[in-house]
Write a structure and sequence with these properties.
extended; ten-stranded antiparallel beta sheet; alpha+beta; 39% strand
Amino acid sequence: MPKPSNAGVAKFAVFLLVVLFFMIVVLIVKVSSGAAPAIQIHGQLKGIGLSTPVTFEVSDANHRIKRVEVEILQNGKSFAAPFEGQPLTATRRPWWKFWASKPESRSIFTARVGGRQIPGLQPGRATLRIAAVNDSWGRFFRGGKREVVLDLPVRFAPPQVEVLTAQHYINLGGSDMVLFKVSAGTLESGVQVGNYFFQSWPVKESLPETRLCLFAFPYDVDAKTPARIVARDDAGNETVSSFTYQVFPKKFHADTIKVTDDYIARVVPPIMSQAPELEDQGSPVKNFLLVNGRLRQIEAQQLVELSKKTAPHFLWSQPFVQLGNSKVEASFADYRSYVYNGQTIDHQTHLGFDLAVSQHAPVVAANDGAVVLAGWFGIYGNAIILDHGCGLQTLYGHLSSIDVKAGDAVKRGQVIGRSGQTGLAGGDHLHFAVLLDGIPVSTIEWWDPHWIHDRIEAKLEPYR
């Protein structure tokens, strides 16, 4: 058998050296790789309280996650925080299936951090550290590592609330204003009435902890429903405080609306054409019920969302004005029964005032404010919503034309559009409503200069 030539041996040696070189390069790349898991904290974590939940997601598209750690660091001490979550979703890929894509490893965890879980934790500040390590060769075979570190306040005592105004008198469906002071670190405060929460605002920029809160007893709550001031701090601690008030029950008017085929044929198709979320029911009457019910509910929630586009201070300084020379055709919280061919087919509550003057009468802004909506708005047809600050807004519906656009600043008495019969209007008129945090409230109070003075201006006078 002939011996290999010297040239052949040399070529083979070079080949081995090249392969070895590339193997060394790959090894160096892998062991020095910075590839690490991703860590995402869900929600906004502002502080640590007695038992603060911390939900976070750990994921890695290329490697298996082999270790997760949560700890609190304070005053040179380290405290492991208990946590639980889903099992890590990926398994190790067999080494010989080098052609297969690597499964993504992903899991969601919830840790509880606070004084109850960590007895040694003290009020003040602490560092939250979340770490995750994968099974890569990174960091010289120790695995790629990612850390999220947050410096947070630690508070165990709930916020303090000091009520600054005395007696409060509220008509059912109506409004009032309470002033109170909160302690440092309070992130959210307001008045809770049943399931309704009304946000508070600083009385002035230089006094962020002195708050004003416009609140209401909505028409659909029991007059005996408790109202409480609720304050939450950056660590998730919450306090509930009572204040003095009296609610006057009110019986609202009942009305009957006759629904005709001509009315349905006129109002429903334009509304349905602007509401792609509604599915044609195959019947004009069923479509009317869908618009009068489901769409009304959808828009009630949209009003709450629009209320978040509010200024943190009042944009007005005078009482609100009613549409001049207008006749009231329907009032706030009228309970309506809809009758078709002698049969009652629906019940809804009318949450505003219907004001009529003449066809295409000029509609003016009830007070200074900013336009947050100007356009089609379902059952209200062409509509405008003005923001007056601190969650207070007014709605103008059924307009034939609109003379403003979203973002415009308007003045009290300025013409913003003209009345009409768009939407679910039976004739030419203005639907006017006052909203607190998107919740319709009694309109007539806001037209009363004496009510404005007693409920609003007199309480704010010491802070002018």
